Amino acid sequence: MVSLLGRYGMNKTILITGATGFVGANLVHFLVKEKVDVHILLRESSNTWRINSILSKLNKYYCDLTDREKTKRLISEIKPNIILHLAIYGGYPFQSNSLKMVDTNYIGTINLLEVCIEEGFDCFINTGSSSEYGIKEKPMKESDLLEPINIYGATKAAATLYCYALAKKYNLPIFTLRLFSPYGYYEEPTRLIPYLIVSMLKNQEIKISSPYAVRDFIFIEDVIEAFLLTIEKKDKILPGTILNVGSGYDTKVIDIFKILKEILDYRREFNLEGFPRDSDVLQIWRADIEKIQKTLGWNPKYNIEEGLVKTVEWFRENLYLYEKREMCVDR
User: Fold this and answer.
1) N or C terminus of the chain: which is more exposed, having fewer CB within 10 Å?
2) How far apart are CA 30 and CA 305, in angstroms?
3) How far is CA 150 from the centre of its chain?
4) 116, 121, 123: which is closest to 228 by C-alpha?
5) Structural domain spans, the chain
C-alpha cells in the first residue's frame, strides 16, 4: 500500500468516527503507522479493544453524534480537513434496536455533516453498505433502485441519500463508499471468517447455518486503499459520488470454509446447525465495480485466497485478542 504521506502531503487533520469498529480501527492503525495526525470520536460506551495498543497516539474526544450541540463544539475545536465517517449501529444481529439505528446511522450523519459544512472541509467520506440495495438478481450497481429489506439497510440508504443531496446542493466534496463484506484484521469475532479461523486454530467444532449463502468478500487492505484513493482524487470526483467497494465476485460460505481448512490443515467437517437469515437464500450478492475502477483507478489487489492467507497470518499473531471474547457467532 502506497504511503499516504507521499500521496497527499498529510499536514491535514483527519477525523474518524467509528474508530473502534472493524474498518475504522484498521484505518486508524494505518494512519498512525503513517504518522498522520488522527482525531477520533468515541462514545462513553465504546469498546477500544481494537485500538488499545495505539490509544496514546490518538487525539480522543467523547461525543455521541446525536448530541448536535456537543458535536458542533468539537468540530469547531478540531477543525478537521478530512472526515471519515464510519460510525454505525445495526451491522450485527445483536444490534437490533431500530430507534438506535435511526439515531446513529441517520440522525448522527445529519448532525455531523451539517456542522462540518458550517466549519468547512476538504473531503467528507460517508461509509455506506451493500444492505442499502436489498435483493437483486444481478451484480449491484450504484444506479440501482435502493430496496433495503431491513431497518439497518434503510437507515444507511437514508444517510447515503442525505449526503448525496447536500453534496449536490452545495457542490461539496462529499462521497459515499458503499462497502460489501470486508474481512481481515480485527474483524468482529462474531463474524464468519474470524469464527472459522479461531475455531480451526484451536481445533474446535464448527457449526454453520447457511453453507451456500453468498457474499462479496473484500479484503480490508483493499478497502483502506479505496479510502486513500478517494482522499487523493477528491478534486477529480463529482460531488455526491457513490462507489461500490467489493471484489466483484460472490463466494459461498462453504468455499470460505474449504479454503481456510486447507490453509490451516483443519481435519474436521462442519456441522449444519442454526437458522438461515432472509438474505442467505440469495444466489447473487456482489458488487458491480466498474464505476470505482473508472473513477479512482481502484482494483482489488487480493483475491479471496490471498486475502485469507494474510488474515490467517495476522490471527496467528493476535489470537490473544480473541481468546477472551465471547464467540456468539453470526454465520
Assistant:
1) N
2) 23
3) 18
4) 123
5) 4-182+217-245, 184-216+248-285+303-323
With a cut of 50, say whether residue 123 has pLDDT above it. yes
| CATH 3.90.25.10, applies to 184-216+248-285+303-323 | yes
- Residue 85 gets which letter from DSSP? E
Sequence letter at residue 44: E
**Are the CB atoms for 123 and 10 separated by under 8 Å?**
no
Handedness of CA 112, 113, 114, 120 (dihedral sign): positive
Domain covering 4-182+217-245: architecture: 3-Layer(aba) Sandwich (3.40)
Q: How far apart are CA 312 and CA 305, in angstroms?
A: 11
> Using one digit for the tens of pLDDT, what is the confidence trace for 211-231?
999 999 999 999 999 999 999
Q: Write out pLDDT tens, residues 234-244.
A: 999 999 999 99
Distances (CA, A) of 199 to 168, 184, 215, 267, 318: 48, 16, 21, 12, 14
Check: CB of residue 287 under 8 Å from CB of residue 298.
Answer: no
The residue type at 7: R
Same fold, 4-182+217-245 and 184-216+248-285+303-323: no
What is the DSSP secondary-structure string of 22-35? HHHHHHHHHHHHTT
Helix, strand, coil distribution of the chain in percent, nearest 5: 45, 15, 40
Q: What is the pTM of this model?
A: 0.94
Nearest to 142 by CA among 240, 245, 239, 243: 243
pLDDT digits (tens, 9 = 90+) for 125-173: 999 999 999 999 999 999 999 999 999 999 999 999 999 999 999 999 9
Nine-digit cell string for 327: 464467540
C-alpha cell recorded at residue 193: 471468517
Three-class SS of residue 331?
A: coil
